Amino acid sequence: MINKKGIIIAIDGPAGAGKSTTAKLLAEKLNYKYIDTGAMYRAVTLYALRYSIEPDEIEKLIDLVKGMNFKFENNGSILFVNSENVSEEIRKPQVSDRVSEFSKVPEVRDILVKKQREIGAEGGIVMEGRDITTAVFPNAELKIFLTADLDIRAYRRLIELKNKGLNINLDEIKGNLETRDFIDSNRDVNPLMVTEDSIVIDTTRMTIEEQVDAIYNKAQEIIKSLNLNESHRN
Fold first, then answer.
1. Residue ranges for the chain with pLDDT beneath 70
2. Where do the domains of the chain lie?
């Protein structure tokens, strides 16, 4: 059954492939809600570090995550956790360096997947992450896997961090991405992978506009085939 507010567009892929920017612009173009699930895992990491909780302290982590209330605003650009705006804090290197350790904990993933399903249950959303097509919304009407060469992904992340005033070198970023790729692809629960029904888009030589248009055109085909309106209010 199709959701009243529109279809569910699930986008997976490694860090730096263009998921966040593409998903956000796509959501704006469709007038859909944009959800960055990676931000939720980053928020868990931020809070765990604040309270000196390690990934192997499962019971403490469970209590922590269960007590976190997530609210996205400004088309997903701003994330509030328990009324605190954590949008800038979760992008800092100390969080990036540890996020894969916490995100691979099965109990953490179970809790967040449930929260993500609740957020997107009504449809009319573009949700991006690393297990959206496989675990969160395996029956999404449109499933996309974005990828790109490692060097390009590292350079994109470098520009992003520099624009935020953070001083970090390219080799450090590349090493971080390689580590995250390995952990995300080899974790026991909901690893990063391409499903048989996902459309794979290599963004290495594509502009953001080209990425958005490619997915938008496919989304419109599905929307029209299901006799839904072309755009939906959030």
1. 1-4, 228-234
2. 8-223
Q: 3 near 136, Cβ under 8 Å?
A: no
Q: Give CA–CA dist 92/76, Å, rounded.
A: 18
Q: CB–CB of 140/10 below 8 Å?
A: yes
Contact 115, 40 (CB under 8 A): yes
The residues pairing with 143 across neighbouring beta strands, listed in sequence order, are 10
CB-based contact 214:202 (threshold 8 Å): no
pTM of the model: 0.86
Given CATH 3.40.190.150, say whether it is the number of domain 8-223: no
2-15 pLDDT, tens digit each:
556 899 999 999 98
- Alpha-carbon distance of 232 to 2, in angstroms, equals 13
CA distance 78 to 80: 7
